[in-house]
Design brief:
94 residues; alpha+beta; Gyrase A, domain 2; 2 helices; globular; EC 2.7.7.6; DNA-directed RNA polymerase subunit Rpo11; protein dimerization activity; cytoplasm; transferase
């Protein structure tokens, strides 16, 4: 099932993205991974109430595009998940 995203705000240095129908677990992992990027100043999940859709807020420095930073962080998370899956499959074979 595909995530449904809504871009709430976009400037050269800031993006606010709403993750419709999603919980906070993935966003927390994405925000943590974003903070590994030296071009990212702030990456945090905001959620007004527990039952509302979470929002990711990203601000960047040094000319880094906030959307590029999110894309790169999501790719890294996907890569980590792929590595974990391969290792788990190897454990099953052994």
């Amino acid at each position: 099932m595909a995530m449904k995203l809504k871009l709430l705000e976009l400037t050269d240095e800031k993006a606010r993205i709403l993750f419709e129908g999603e919980g906070y677990t993935y966003l927390d992992a994405l925000a943590a991974e974003l903070l590994n990027d030296p071009g990212v100043d702030v990456a945090q999940r905001k959620q007004a109430f527990k039952f509302t859709d979470p929002e990711l807020v990203v601000t960047t420095v040094g000319g880094r595009s906030p959307l590029d930073a999110v894309i790169d962080a999501a790719k890294r998370l996907s890569g980590y998940a792929g590595e974990l899956l391969q290792q788990m499959e190897t454990l099953q074979i052994a």
